[in-house]
Design goal:
Blueprint (H helix, E strand, L loop, with lengths): L37 H4 L8 H4 L4 H7 L1 H27 L2 E2 L2 E2 L12 H43 L9 H19 L2 H19 L12
């Protein structure tokens, strides 16, 4: 907003007078003052300032906050136990041959559909975070092992050779496949990948209705 012009005064000791024929805006600047630049009025939060936060060492951060993820594992385990107890309580509370089963006192009560859905979403969210954390740890272990091999080769007088990011990615995938095979989850993982690949290919194909210039 441009500052309003200050009218001339007959005497410097007299106050400034504004015309009554001009509407006064709600946001106005007092005569004799300037609005200042927008940068002077801009607020600043140091928590999200690039200068304040600096560079983040992800490896060091994971080491310091490992207890948070361990606590999260315990929470996921407790929620799964709660869901299992609710499922068991729902089965025991059903009617069998026209007679209701009596639930033991002090037993777990079945959860409502809303509560059960909320707990399932929380388990899924925390499990995904833990999976990403574990994958980051595996990548860091792989990089550390490769680094040790490189340093050992240099100490033996060999010419230093540093692996490319592509080689590290291939080694990471090989380790991931080995772990899935040990857990017996490799077939399920590969089937999921094939399904995702087929879905992308279908989306990339042209529409059949307009493929040959007419409707099918």
């Amino acid at each position: 907003m441009a500052p309003l012009s200050v009218p001339s005064r007959l005497n410097k000791n007299r106050p400034s007078q504004m015309s009554t024929k001009r509407a006064v805006s709600t946001l106005r600047i007092a005569p004799g003052l300037s609005a200042g630049s927008s940068s002077e009025r801009a607020s600043r939060d140091p928590r999200f300032d690039a200068v304040s936060k600096g560079d983040v060492n992800e490896h060091l951060w994971r080491q310091k906050y490992a207890f948070v993820f361990e606590k999260q594992r315990e929470e996921v385990k407790e929620i799964k136990q709660t869901l299992a107890a609710s499922k068991t309580a729902a089965k025991t509370s059903t009617t069998v041959v026209g007679r209701k089963k009596k639930r033991k006192r002090g037993g777990a009560k079945p959860l409502s559909a809303e509560e059960e859905e909320e707990l399932k979403l929380e388990v899924s969210r925390k499990s995904n975070q833990l999976r990403e954390y574990d994958q980051a740890l595996e990548r860091q272990k792989l990089k550390s092992a490769v680094r040790k091999q490189e340093l050992a080769a240099i100490s033996e007088g060999k010419r230093p050779f540093f692996k490319k990011a592509r080689d590290l990615k291939e080694a990471e995938l090989s380790e991931q496949y080995r772990q899935l095979q040990d857990k017996g989850q490799l077939d399920k993982y590969m089937a999921k990948k094939r399904k995702q690949r087929a879905s992308k290919q279908r989306k990339a194909l042209p529409n059949q209705r307009h493929a040959w210039g007419g409707e099918v």
